[in-house]
Amino acid sequence: MKILITAGPTREHLDPIRFISNRSTGKMGFAVAQAAAERGHTVTLIAGPVSLATPPGVTRVDVTSACEMLEAVQRALPKQDALVMSAAVADWRPIQKTATKLKKRDMEPVIHLVPNPDILKTILPEKENRLFVGFAAETGDPTAEAQRKLTAKGLDMIVANDVTAEGAGFAVDTNRVTFFTVNGQPQVLPLQSKLDVGRAIIAWLEGQ
Ligand code: CTP
User: Fold this and answer.
1) What separation, in Å, do the N-terminal and C-terminal C-alpha atoms of the chain show?
2) At a CB cut-off of 8 Å and minimum separation 6, what does 130 contact?
3) What does the pLDDT look like over 95-105, one tens digit per residue?
């Protein structure tokens, strides 16, 4: 299969120095990319700003902002059989990014934001028979939000986790996730390495 994977956070700059972002490190998405390459799939990895090495055999495209990630996904999608959106896309961006550093004396203590595009919703009309997998990182039981996002974003499967659970979430090498699909029962996976979670996602894609 040809598999497109997004990973990491996006950064939404106010000026060349300051930005809004989130705690994603990219570990989960890079693990999915490694697992897919291990199985011989053709992997394109669109990465936000992270400090991780590219897994062997993976083609990597680096982006910074949500708008750049959307463009990179739109460019790569036509050739793909499946998309795994593990990136933690920032929902908002500052209304403008200045070319030079903002000076404190010229700034108001308010940041004006505009919504970023929802990448999955934007590309849904181009889905055709491709498989789309999303992620839902929630605080607390993710079931209701996972099911809502599965439908709202037109996904075939969503990988949900409670980032506050022991061994799950940001900057750790393990994760505890549940797979939600449109028709089947939720599949609760044990606490395991992010690489093994990645392998389970790839096995699920191969089984479709
Ligand atoms: N996603 C996306 N584009 C965005 C935000 C999220 O494609 N602008 C994708 C993520 O990559 C993930 C899924 O949508 O696969 C769910 O992301 P999440 O941030 O949980 O969803 P939101 O719709 O932003 O919901 P909320 O922030 O209200 O929980």
Assistant:
1) 11
2) 77, 80, 81, 82, 83
3) 999 999 999 99
For domain 2-206, say whether CATH 1.10.150.120 is its number.
Answer: no
Of 22, 129, 161, 183, the active-site residue reads 22
Tokens of 40: 């011989």
- Determine the Cα–Cα distance for residues 67 and 87; give it in Å rounded to an integer: 13
Q: Find tokens 């607390």 and name the residue.
A: 140
Q: Hunting for tokens 């463009």 — which residue is that?
A: 71
User: Is 22 tagged catalytic?
Assistant: yes
Q: Give the tens place of pLDDT for each residue, 53-90.
A: 999 999 999 999 999 999 999 999 999 999 999 999 99
Residue 108 reports pLDDT greater than 90? no
Q: Which atom in ligand 1 lies closest to the alpha carbon of residue 88?
A: 11
**What residues does 46 pair with on adjacent strands?**
6, 61
At residue 91, the 3 state secondary structure works out as coil
Task: Spell out the alpha helix ranges (H) of the chain.
Answer: 27-38, 66-76, 119-123, 143-152, 194-206
